[in-house]
Write a structure and sequence with these properties.
This protein has 281 residues and is α/β, with parallel strands linked by helices. It has a single domain, classed as Rossmann fold, CATH 3.40.50. Helix 1 crosses helix 8. The longest helix has 19 residues. The chain starts with 10 loop residues before the first helix and ends with a strand. The mean pLDDT is 93.
């Protein structure tokens, strides 16, 4: 990835979030049950949650986790060993390092393209990795995760909506600051078609962890809030008022009965959209 974020430092958050959202990966791969891939590339694999799932679903395929962070790929290798699946790894910057990866029958890219200034160029490069008849699966355009009731019993009701607004603000600034940033209508199916692919379709998969949350999803919510609240570049400072920041402090206090570590009404609901396209034979 070309954005300046320190992805290796976010390894715990990325892996926990990947595990929490992983049901949608299996659902998306079920859409490809007629595909018999010999080689699969997971571009921007991070700690390898999706790549390991692909290695499980397609045990006869060579699955390669590709990322710009050697630290995250080392984590992917350990995960594969722990799960008993076969996984290869390759270090490559995205998108400029894709040319050396070789072709694949399935190219998966989960929420990576939006970190590149020219998103259409990135999709063109991803499509260029496909063998004839191969499939590109791009995860982009998710719905923001919901996990809090509208009224927490303290603070100003509607915190979740205001958190969503800060997320949109931060995302817009991130996109504008990327090197070579190009504005484009984010019609992802149209962009996949523009990359030369056919049989383009999109499908959205629900990720639903109802209350009370199990330990993993609960920890994912806590890490997400903590990361946004405490990172040095101030993801929330200046975007939320003092009352909302105080509410977040209380939510993140593990000793507070009303905090996310202890709330019985905490849930996690989101949706992931996967855009599929096929390279004509």
């Amino acid at each position: 990835m070309t954005h300046h974020m320190d992805w290796a430092a976010m390894a715990d958050l990325l892996e926990l979030e990947g595990e929490t959202h992983s049901p949608y990966v299996r659902q998306a791969l079920d859409e490809l049950r007629d595909l018999r891939p010999r080689r699969i590339l997971d571009i921007g694999s991070g700690p390898g949650v999706a790549a390991c799932r692909m290695a499980e679903v397609f045990p006869d395929a060579e699955v390669v986790a590709v990322d710009g962070s050697p630290e995250l790929l080392e984590r992917a290798e350990k995960r594969a060993a722990r799960l008993g699946v076969s996984l290869q790894t390759m270090v490559a910057a995205f998108p400029e390092g894709l040319d050396d990866l070789g072709p694949a029958d399935l190219v998966w890219s989960g929420q990576v393209v939006h970190h590149v200034g020219d998103q259409q160029d990135a999709l063109n490069r991803l499509a260029g990795l496909l063998e004839p008849g191969g499939v590109l699966a791009v995860v982009e355009g998710e719905l923001p995760a919901r996990f809090l009731p509208r009224d927490l019993g303290f603070g100003t009701p509607g915190l979740q909506a205001r958190l969503d607004a800060t997320r949109e603000d931060r995302f817009a600034r991130m996109r504008a600051e990327l090197p070579g940033s190009v504005r484009v209508v984010e019609d992802w199916p149209a962009m996949v078609r523009a990359a030369g692919l056919t049989d383009v379709r999109a499908k959205t998969f629900l990720v639903d962890h109802p209350a009370p949350l199990a330990e993993g999803p609960r920890a994912s919510v806590a890490r997400y809030l903590r990361h946004r609240h405490t990172t040095p570049d101030g993801l929330l400072d200046g975007l939320l008022d003092a009352d909302d920041l105080a509410t977040l402090d209380r939510l993140l206090d593990p000793t507070d009965p009303a905090g996310v570590a202890n709330r019985q009404d905490l849930f996690l609901l989101t949706a992931k959209t996967v855009h599929f396209g096929t390279l004509p034979t």
